[in-house]
Amino acid sequence: MSPQDSTSPAAQLQAAEALTTQTLRFHPDHQAGFIEFAAPDESGRCWFGGWVRDAAPDEDGALLLDRRKFPGLLRLCRYHRDDLPPGASGFLGLFEGEWQPGPATTEIFLALAGAAPAHLRSLSPLRVVPLRDVALLFEQVEGCRPRGPFAALRDALLAPDSWMAGNAQAAGLPLHCGFDQVLLLPGFGCVVEGWVLSPARPVAGFTLRLDGLSIPAAAEGTRRRARPDLREAFPALAPLAAEAGFVALFRHAGPLPLAGAMLRFVHPDGTASNEELPAARAGWVEAGLGEAELLRAYPALEYEPFAPALAQALAARRLAGRPAPRPALPPAPAPRAVLRAVGGTRSEAFRLFDEAAAHAPLLAARGFGIAFLGLETQRDVLLPLFHGFRRAFAGPASLFLAGGAAPSLAEPAPLLAALGTERFLAMEAFTRLPAPLLEQALDHLAAPRLREAVILGQGLGAAAAEPAGLLGPAAPGRARPPAVLGTVAWTGPRPRPSEMERRLALAAAVAA
Predict the structure, then answer these.
(1) 3-state SS of the chain: helix, strand, coil percent to 5?
(2) Rounded CA separation 317/288 (Å)
(3) In 10 A of CB 8, how many CB atoms?
(4) Cβ contact 16:72 at 8 Å
(5) How many CB atoms lie within 10 A of CB 365?
(6) Cα dihedral sign for 432, 434, 439, 445?
(7) What's the gap between Cα 315 and its chain centre?
(8) Which among 96, 83, 45, 74 has a CA at the least distance from the CA of 148?
(9) Whole-number Å distance between alpha carbons of 189 and 186
(10) Do 491 and 454 touch, CB atoms closer than 8 A?
């Protein structure tokens, strides 16, 4: 092999890989320098800084040891440091391999393949700094007569595939930006709203770096907006304010950790500018939180093409996050049962148990049990009321308690399984069912041949030909009861939905 071939990157990497089969011993006499800090690059590389003896090569294959061996290429640029003796220089270096510092990293060694047994050793524990600190060091080193591949390393730091925050400013390119809000949508993704002024290079797109993933903005939820408020703040860039604002949607069904998250502004020439997302601007859209902010970002939310998928994701999140109700006392099996949700007020609890006591003879005569679903926070009120009811009731009675803000029988499967119930009547909180209608429903449930049916509640969009409270077959397109053989479901008045819930429900209905 010619001398030229032996210094090629392929040959250097091959030499580093050859070290993986050898037993390496790091004697202090062979130490060629010290690694004072490391800065991982999101693109998979790692930058180092410290000092090195002049005899060490500028470019070499290297084997990094951090509990196991990682071959790669090492490139160093050197500069003068007053605190070092003759024959040694400060360095900034780039290691291109498959290693990144982790929580268990304490001390590392870099064996130089072309100068074995020379090696670099790190501080213990290894100090990890942000990539922006490396860019600042490059600016400072530029005035210290750097030697070696300084320009090539600086270009690599600012290359389009680098995720260094503030890379546009480090390259001397003007870019001003701000983030108004970051909305986290569990199971769906996130929305970033802000503004950007880039006079040197227009912004053509957005990419989010989240938890090691690069997520391009979804076109259906990304748009530019005018920001007239920026004209006074940046008078020299006033013409750019016409489309300086942006709203960008990033679809991601996984976790949404904002630590270290960055937004990339993509330019038409293929370059990019990276900025770190401020965690302080983040907010969750969940359980009623963040709805006004989401509607501000998308004033016509129900007409957006992604609205049905968003509605589905938020509904799934609500169901998944709702703790299963648990019995306050051992449940009493009831093949046929009336399920009653207890409203969250003390007066409603007393009213409901009074109504249940009035219906108790009818339930017992028809062979029906009853199960109450209340809130865990109402336990002290519900337990005495339930004990009083159970003493006077001839049939099986059970009490279940759930967390959350309001009890709901929208998903009655856990109660049905605990009770062994096959036929049931479900009544949501604040529902009033007159005795004649209750008798009609119980007779229908007791029929040997039972069709799936619904009881239409008031204010639920029933057709004019279907008076509230009358039994009728489930019509196509109407929400059906749970898929349990022989069920009749009562859906009573519910709390008024929020503006966002109403709009998303409309979007889902239109899509269906």
Answers:
(1) 30, 30, 40
(2) 12
(3) 12
(4) yes
(5) 12
(6) negative
(7) 15
(8) 74
(9) 6
(10) yes
Q: In the predicted model, is pLDDT for residue 312 greater than 50?
A: yes
Q: The sheet that has 488-490: what strands, in order across it?
A: 326-327, 397-402, 369-375, 336-341, 423-427, 488-490, 453-455, 471-473
Q: Which position has the token pair 């130490």?
A: 31
> What's the Cα-to-Cα distance from 447 to each of 273, 441, 442, 480, rounded to whole Å?
70, 10, 9, 20
Crossing angle between the packed helical segments 131-141 and 150-157, to the nearest 10 degrees: 150
Residue 376, exposed/middle/buried by CB under 10 A (0-12, 13-18, 19+)? middle
Q: Are strands 369-375 and 453-455 parallel, antiparallel or unpaired?
A: unpaired
What number of CA atoms fall less than 13 Å from residue 82's CA on the CB side?
Answer: 0
472 vs 106: CA distance, rounded Å? 71
Max Cα–Cα distance, the chain, nearest Å: 102
Residue (of 312, 191, 189, 316) closest to 254 by Cα position: 189
Compute the distance between CA of residue 118 and CA of residue 233 in angstroms, rounded to an integer: 55
DSSP state of 467: -
Judge contact between 285 and 184, C-beta under 8 A: yes
Task: Report pTM.
Answer: 0.56
Residues forming a β-bridge with 50: 35, 91
Residue indicated by tokens 């001398």:
3
- In single-letter form, the type of residue at position 281 comes to R
CB neighbourhood size of 114 (10 A): 18
pLDDT per residue as tens digits for the range 354-404: 999 999 999 999 999 999 999 999 999 999 999 999 999 999 999 999 887
Q: How confident is the model at residue 179 (pLDDT cuts 50, 70, 90)?
A: very high
Burial class (CB in 10 A: 0-12, 13-18, 19+), 127: middle
- Compute the average pLDDT of residues 463-474: 32
Ranking 83-97, 162-176, 255-269, 341-355 by mean pLDDT, the lowest is 162-176
Q: Rounded CA gap, 207 and 463, in Å?
A: 48
Give 406-416 pLDDT, tens digit per residue. 787 767 778 88
Q: What is the mean pLDDT of residues 44-56?
A: 91
pLDDT of 448 above 50: yes
Distance CA 459, CA 343 (A): 18
- Give the single-character DSSP code of 466: S
Strand 189-197 relative to strand 59-65, pairing: unpaired
